[in-house]
Amino acid sequence: MKGQRWKWLLVAWMSLSLIFIFPLYLHAVENSECLDCHGDPEMVKELPNGKTISLYVNPKKFEASVHGQNGIACTDCHSDIEELNYEKEVPHPVPVASVDCTDCHDEEGTAYEESVHAKARAKGIKDAPTCATCHQYHYTPYLAAYTVREKEDLFCLKCHNPMLSHKWLTQKDTHFAHVDCSLCHAKTKGMTNLRLYNPLTMKFIPGGEIVKAFGTSYEGFLGVLDANKNRQLENEELNAITDKLNRKGFNAAFYGEMVAESAPEVHKISKDAIRKCNTCHSPQSPYLRSVNLILTKSNGKVSSYKVEKAALSSFTTSKFYLLNATKVKWVDIIGFILILGGVCFAGGHFFIRIITIPIRRKREG
């Protein structure tokens, strides 16, 4: 009897689960339902001032976004829409409530509240950045594959022209091309990333083309090159990468950047910046503790491979030269030889002139 009782309790529990859970599943709003209307490029909304704004969401661009790739539903963000009523002209509440990104990204939200951007909004500056200002509404991309320049275009340069400020900073264009703004303005942790690019075309080489050239995959790439099996790429192994790619016509070289770690702290932007040059320009720079070679993927993600720090002081990576931090040893040796040769030549000439004074006087007499 006890066994029968448990069976009936199990059946009852499963029945109740189906009664309460299955209807919720049936009534969940699918993204495809939203895109039935919002997937129309001509869908617009007329504002009280007579202007119109687009309500179009590009399905392919959304699918390629961070949210699309992670299966986020429209109603996960637009949580005030619980169901669609097609008997109404607009089948959901109007206006739609503002999306609160901190429902998922609470740590990022906390960091943002301490930023100069949040303080500007608190003062009533309407144009001060919000989440969507930088990350876009429906097409939030993975940023790992973005270069420093691309991130500046996406974020900072929308509002700021750094060339009009930073008067204390030398070689501005070089810094803005190779150093994340948030490294100085958010004082966050960072690293040095190396990418492969073609100096002639000034284009970066996609990771898919690189692994294909080596006849391997992203997962097998390190194993093909790591001769001593120490799970990191050294100078000789980096040379092997460019040598093979150049034999295949890629004209490959390394391009270095100092980038911020993907962490909530990058949102705590401050007006004050780090102005101590030796924060970067030193062998002990915290941004040189982690050096990586990254290969970009078509979905915006990257594969990252650890690089030995000493490789930054070689001819291989000489295009990423950080004064007082990444000295190319052979350049130092050649420079020392040239200086020593000049000193020896001048000294030798002076010495010979002295010891030959008697001979020259005799000839003149």
General description of the model:
By secondary structure, the chain is of the alpha+beta class. A hairpin with a 4-residue loop joins β3 and β4.
List keywords for this structure.
365 residues; alpha+beta; 7 strands; 40% helix; 10% strand
What is the alpha-carbon Rg in Å?
A: 31 Å
State the end-to-end distance. 138 Å
> Mean pLDDT across all residues, rounded?
85
Q: In percent, how helical is the residue content?
A: 40-55%
Strand content: 5-15%
Number of strands: 7
> Which sequence of SSEs, written as H and E, runs from N to C?
HHEEHHHHHHHHHEEHHHEEEHH
The largest pleated sheet is described as: 5 strands, mixed
Tell the overall outline: elongated
Task: List unreliable stretches of 5+ residues.
Answer: 18-26
- From the helix content, strand content and strand pairing, which structural class follows? alpha+beta
- The tally of helices reads 16
Topology:
Blueprint: H1 2-27, H2 31-38, E1 44-46, E2 52-54, H3 59-64, H4 66-69, H5 74-77, H6 106-113, H7 116-122, H8 131-135, H9 148-154, H10 172-178, H11 181-185, E3 190-198, E4 203-204, H12 207-213, H13 221-225, H14 235-247, E5 253-260, E6 291-296, E7 302-306, H15 329-355, H16 357-364
Parallel strand pairs: 3-6
Antiparallel strand pairs: 1-2, 3-4, 3-5, 6-7
